[in-house]
Amino acid sequence: MSDPFDLPAAHPFGIHNLPYAVFEHDGTSRVGSRLGDHVVDLCSIPGAPYADAWAQPSLDAFLALTLADWRHARAWLQELLSDREEQPALAGHLIALDEVTLRLPFTVGDYVDFYASEHHATNVGRIFRPDGEALTPNWKHLPIGYHGRSGTVVVSGTEIIRPCGQRKAPSDPAPVFGPSIRLDIEAELGFVVGGSPTTLGRPVSVGESDEHLFGVVLLNDWSARDIQAWEYVPLGPFLGKSFATSISPWVVTMEALRAARVALPGQDPEPLPYLRGEPTADGATTAYGLDIDYDVEWNGTLVSRPPYRTMYWSPAQMLAHMTVNGATIAPGDLFGSGTISGPERDQRGSFLELSWSGQEPVTLSDGSTRSFLEDGDTVTLRASAPGPDGSVIGLGECTGRIRPATP
Ligand code: CA
Question: Which residue in 148, 73, 61 sits closest to 106, CA to CA?
Fold first, then answer.
């Protein structure tokens, strides 16, 4: 275990990251940050500015504060952890990661899942509708999404029970019921909403998104493709998705991802005015993308490396679209980016695409082949982004193992 005060510059949990999680230690759960392989027990530090919020067993109270508070907390912690004279005393407020249990970090409010990768939407369109246009006519005009089930969002490490449901292949005369035989993953980025609740009828603009985007988590939108394919017309995903969604325990703040902001790959046609970004003082735009590299591991074999920078829609645009009808948002809301797929085969963020619906199975390092998940399989998402001055911002991991269907 590395010395938390003498980490290599490229350590993914150095002083430029400082994500938040909820950890359990000695019988109580509270909010912590992370330095190297240690949890920083925030509320135990004398003079901690948000000790009341950090003493809670969730991030809920801290999420309900403001962008100014989040920045103040980050500056305080960065200064404290960098102060050589403070370090001996601070050591008593660090707990080794392997001595804690990480919990679901916040109470998930409304959950929305988008579909913001052009490569993913094109691949799925080709697979599900081989005789039609790959992209639907609306796709480049609005970030498509649906409302999901917040109560089944679980923290990384929670086992996933194979869902049962109806399925019917086009050639079958009638549907059958049983455990899904096409269980899949979707590697996504989840955006955690914070700040003041908004008012009915008052949209959040693209330029206001910083006030409401607290941070990100890794998100795996487990998907039963056979259930989904039979049920999704005309109202979209339902039971093929709602059985479980996994998120990583560490919430990496949008402030820590400042250096990872990049231009979007390009939007043509130009979106309607309410979805357009505005130039910012540093020459960027409020409708930014994010440079985050993912690894997808299937039973320990690296099978894909989806690049988030290829996503078509900005998180700020997704937030603006989600509220443009006057719908409210509140701290604790969560929205997923949609599956992250790049243009190459080894950049696809779902096994549906990676195996091209079972036609091109994936070979794992033990020599076995897979198209969809088998009982006992484990999938782990990992990701990292560039930080300032050559540093690395780690997003940690999001993992889940498949349990057989409940009889
Ligand atoms: Ca999804």
Answer: 61
> d(Cα 338, Cα 69) in Å, to the nearest integer?
29
Indicate the pLDDT class of residue 1, thresholds 50, 70 and 90. low
| pTM check: above 0.90 | yes
Q: Tokens at residue 135, please?
A: 């992209």
Contact by Cβ (8 Å): 347, 366? no
pLDDT, tens digit, 9 for 90 and up, residues 113-144: 999 999 999 999 999 889 999 999 999 999 99
What is the whole-number distance in angstroms between the Cα of residue 236 and the centre of ligand 1? Answer: 11
| Inter-residue contact 354 to 303 (CB < 8 Å) | yes
**Which of 120, 141, 147, 321 is flagged as catalytic?**
120
What is d(CA 160, CA 221) in angstroms, rounded to the nearest whole number? Answer: 11
Identify the DSSP state of 279. B
In the chain, pLDDT over 90 holds for what percent of residues?
Answer: 95
Is the separation of the CB atoms in 276 and 313 below 8 Å? Answer: no
The gap from C-alpha 356 to its chain's centroid, in whole angstroms, comes to: 24
Kindly state the average pLDDT of the residues 254-274: 97
Distance 374 CA to ligand 1 centre (A): 20
Please give the distance, rounded to the nearest whole angstrom, from the Cα atom of residue 223 to the centre of ligand 1.
8
Tokens of 149: 């089930």
Is the pLDDT at 80 greater than 70? The verdict is yes
Alpha-helical (H) ranges within 26-109 are 51-54, 60-63, 67-82, 87-90
Q: In angstroms, what is the span from residue 233 Cα to ligand 1's centroid?
A: 16
All structural domains of the chain? 20-103 (2.30.30.230), 111-403 (3.90.850.10)
CA 236 distance to own-chain centroid: 21
Residue 120 known to be catalytic: yes
Q: Give me ligand 1 centre to Cα 317, in Å.
A: 17
Distance 396 CA to ligand 1 centre (A): 20
Report whether pLDDT(281) > 90. no
CA angle 341, 242, 376 (to 5 degrees): 75
Confidence of residue 105 (pLDDT cuts 50, 70, 90): very high
